[in-house]
Amino acid sequence: MQFKDYYKVMGVARDATDVQIKQAYRKLARKYHPDVSKLKDAEARFKELGEAYEVLKDPEKRAAYDRLGDGPSPGEDFRAPPGWDAGFEFRGAGPRPGAGGGSGFGGYSDFFESLFGRTSDFGSAQGEDRHAKVLLDLEASLHGGARTITLSQPETDASGHLHNRERTLSVQIPKGILAGQHIRLAGQGARPHGATQAGDLLIEVEFQPHRLYRVDGRDLVLRLPVTPWEAMLGATVQTPTPAGPVELKIRAESHSGSKLRLKGRGIPASPPGDLYVELEIALPPATDAKVRAAYEAFAAAAPFNPRAGLGD
After folding, report:
1. What residues contact residue 274 under an 8 Å CB cut-off, 6+ apart?
2. How far apart are CA 29 and CA 216, in angstroms?
3. Which residues of the chain have pLDDT under 70?
4. Any idea where the domains of the chain sit in the sequence?
5. pLDDT at 119 (0 to 100)
6. Cis bond leading into 174, ω under 30°?
7. pLDDT digit string, tens, across residues 49-80
């Protein structure tokens, strides 16, 4: 997918004010409007301009877009980095960063759709609900408990420049919460003019990468290194689990990629997930003559060609 430089499309600097962005749009819209322009690509340029303006005129979309930086090098495909949209506080209604899926904004590019695609309406009769995505450590779900989070709310100041206003909240994380689920904080949303009470803040949970476990829904996956002799002869080894280490029996003639399931030892949701242990054969390095001799003896004793099935 191609990265789109919306600032370049509109011909403005990255620190342009909202007034400068609006002026640039009006000027270019007159230039490329299909009913006026004689340029062959006028319609495509006008469409691209409208997409850029949709992002840069909105402080929330613009702040999220700015996190992507200048994009990849020319010719490289764009892929949004994990967690790029976390920590921002957005209006509940309308498109929000990182949502993906169908947009309701027919005609916008795949790049736009991937960033702002889905609509979410959490409207409140009294106040305005807000939305934020946060990256939590996996232990927050495994054990529950309070976490301190800091959210940035994009705003345009009196001079028309974009800046972020931060606030810090203490949030109680329910044990067993899954990625994609929400925590609702009553009264922590916005209070529009004339409203008697504030809306709610809906926090969507995502997990930071963990040093041991990969999260797959409510299940966890652990890559466990084993020696060649443990895999071939079978063994009982110690493996970590979220609840503490356990003894795990390795079947004889296992191979890299073999999976063992520890039922109920994943995320403690309802029902709880499982822990899948994926074996990874680790070879001892031939760092001295004794180990090299052992490898040579093994090669002589067990002639084996793992590439025999690949043909000529």
Report:
1. 219, 220, 261, 262, 263, 264, 265, 266
2. 46
3. 74-75, 92-106, 117-127, 192-195, 312
4. 1-57, 130-207, 213-298
5. 39
6. no
7. 999 999 999 888 898 899 888 877 766 788 88
28-49 tens-digit pLDDT = 999 999 888 888 888 999 999 9
| CATH domain 130-207 topology | HSP40/DNAj peptide-binding domain (2.60.260)
The token pair that represents 68 in the structure block? 């992507």
Q: Are 285 and 291 in contact (CB under 8 A)?
A: yes
128's tokens: 């305005």
Read off the amino acid at residue 66: D
DSSP string, 155-220: EE-TTS-EEEEEEEEEEEEPTT--TT-EEEETT-SB--TT-SS---EEEEEEE---SSEEEETTEE
CB-CB neighbours of 211 under 10 Å: 5
- Give the pLDDT confidence score for residue 154 in this predicted structure: 83
Q: At 120, is the secondary structure helix, strand, or coil?
A: coil
Q: Residue 81 is encoded by which pair of tokens?
A: 């980095």
Helix axes 59-66, 42-56, angle to 10 degrees: 100
Same topology between domain 130-207 and domain 213-298: yes
- Token pair belonging to 52: 């850029």
Pick the CATH number of 213-298 from 2.30.30.50, 2.60.260.20, 3.30.300.30, 3.40.640.10: 2.60.260.20
pLDDT of residue 189: 84
pTM score? 0.75
Q: Say what the pLDDT of residue 307 is.
A: 87
Does the 1-57 domain belong in CATH 3.90.1700.10? no
Sign of CA dihedral 245, 246, 252, 253: negative
Three-state secondary structure call for residue 290: helix
Best CA proximity match to 152, nearest among 62, 78, 53: 62
